[in-house]
Records
---
Amino acid sequence: MASPADTGKRRITVLGTGYLGTAHAACLASLGFEVLGVDVSAARIAALSRGELPFHEPGLGSLLRTGLASGRLSFSTSYPYAAAFGDVHFVCVGTPQRAGCYAADLSQLTGCIDALGPLLNRPCLVAGKSTVPVGTAADLAARLARLSPAGPACELAWNPEFLREGHAVADTLRPDRIVAGVPSARAEAILRGVYADPIRAGAPFLATDLATAELVKVAANAFLATKISFINAMAEVCEAAHADVMMLSEALGHDPRIGRAALRPGLGFGGGCLPKDIRAFMARAGELGVEPAVSFLREVDDINLRRRARMVDLARELAGGSFAGRNIGVLGVAFKPGSDDIRDSPALDVAATIHGLGASVRLFDPVAMSQARRAHPELSFADSAIEAVTGADVTLLLTEWQEFREADPEKLGAAVARRNIVDGRNALDAGRWRAAGWHYRALGRPLGHAGK
Ligand SMILES: NC(=O)c1ccc[n+]([C@@H]2O[C@H](COP(=O)([O-])OP(=O)(O)OC[C@H]3O[C@@H](n4cnc5c(N)ncnc54)[C@H](O)[C@@H]3O)[C@@H](O)[C@H]2O)c1
């Protein structure tokens, strides 16, 4: 078999094997690269080496196992091994919100560069993929230059990632664009080589400076969050004006300048990216002296959080004005369908708040149960949607999994104590649920609307 050098394929390491890193590693192995995934978590590396995906991501488990079986994909906790292995090192570690403030916690990134840098004694490219505040890449490049024995032969690029959880495999193999912040023509050529297949398939490759590449990702997330909060702000107005935000959204979406994507009103955004990324953007803009440029993101964040409060209020209204002694059945825990990610999940936030207000809350999610159990041992969990709503005074749809969208209102109705439902995602056919005798409420819609 030809070696990677013979085929012109460089050997790749992926540092940090979370949602992003595991998808990146398995997809590059499927494209024919030899890939080593590295993580500081020995348990995670052991699971991945056994072909066990530590989280839910459609299609990724089989890609992982195919990669392992082909011998092109392997995992390790060893940085010396990684440094010796890789020609290109993709950095995919986490950049969570720092405790007590809006700024990003960059300690995983600096930890990674500090561990890798001193071991780099031959030419290579370090390519950051994590989402970072603008300016981080330049700081890390200087840090790497200080640490690396290979000196200028070891360069740092920034190649932000746009994959969506739930679609990680398709988004990685067929990205809608590839953005590369590159310090040199050599670095650009290396990244063009890594992404040769998607580029050949038509993905635009945009080479930029480091700062622009970092900002593209943050700006994209800020725009998405703003669009979601815009329609949710309209939902607030619709609630006050007895108008229907679903019709409003549909009518807006027909305007090609606006578009339908990210315009579905509901419980708002959560997860491990949008909330912390817009907050880190505000913090960084403050440091750069341009705080007013993104101060609207504070409102975007506030609108988003107000939807959760509104959901709790609607549930309480249907519970008869108080949660004390009430049973609440919750459908959905993950921050969105297609994922088991519960980081900053609006669903879990609402469920925990209602529990704190005295209700007995029972939850079900098709894939996120074990994560939720670990994070919220005080809540009670069911093995099915029917079990979650059995005896419920109010049912809440908080994550719009297909199985909940298709749920039979008669079947669920036979299990509940009272046919009260709040559709937190505007995902159900209101007419069908009302026809089955349910008192149906949804965010941003008038009491007696008839439509879908
Ligand atoms: N999850 C997504 O959909 C997504 C999409 C685009 C961008 N991003 C960005 O990608 C980054 C990673 O996100 P994620 O969701 O995969 O995070 P994650 O928390 O799931 O994974 C991070 C991994 O890095 C490991 N790690 C920490 N320090 C390390 C070190 N020094 N060396 C090696 N491994 C280390 C952790 O153990 C963990 O497994 C973040 O910046 C995020 O904003 C994520």
---
Amino acid sequence: MPLEISAVNSAPLCLEYAHMQYDYKYCPICKNELTTSEEGGLERKRCSDRECEFVLWNNPTPVLAAVAHRNDEVVLVQSIGWPVHWFSLITGFMEAGESPEEGIAREVKEEIGLDCKVGELLGVYEFIQMNQIIIAYDVILSEGEIIIDREELVDFKTIRSGELRPWPSGTGQAVKKWLSQRGIENKELEFKKLKKS
Ligand SMILES: [Zn+2]
């Protein structure tokens, strides 16, 4: 029975759906079929042509995240396709040739239209379900109007630190760390597994 994670209340929750792992069937180099064999101590897919060196390593993808805030309010965003009560941190993938700090500043500008100052690294967290590694920063937003990128987001909200509750995932752990640096210990939200009807 397929399960989905659903919110127990209307507070912010998170799932980064954007980048599910592809299930490759063919070698991207020589187009032969992939086969399974032991590579580097684990069962992996590799090219069936032994002359070809392609192995699908399936390493986790780095994802940048921002606890983006100003005046004691954190900005959370809702991606297209999420349930209406789900909000999360601003996140995004790194581009080739940029530093993580440059990348998260770019994502903040793209997603909510504001310049920012990238502060300290909050932490690096695993997100095993998505095969991602979350690299989260404290980000101080400039003044100005928030204008969301309608191609990626449907909505945003601002929430005061006193009301911001972390959630049980990589980005949620970054929120927890950010709050703890301010001496705030808000109760963690729970994910509830529901049977799909
Ligand atoms: Zn190949």
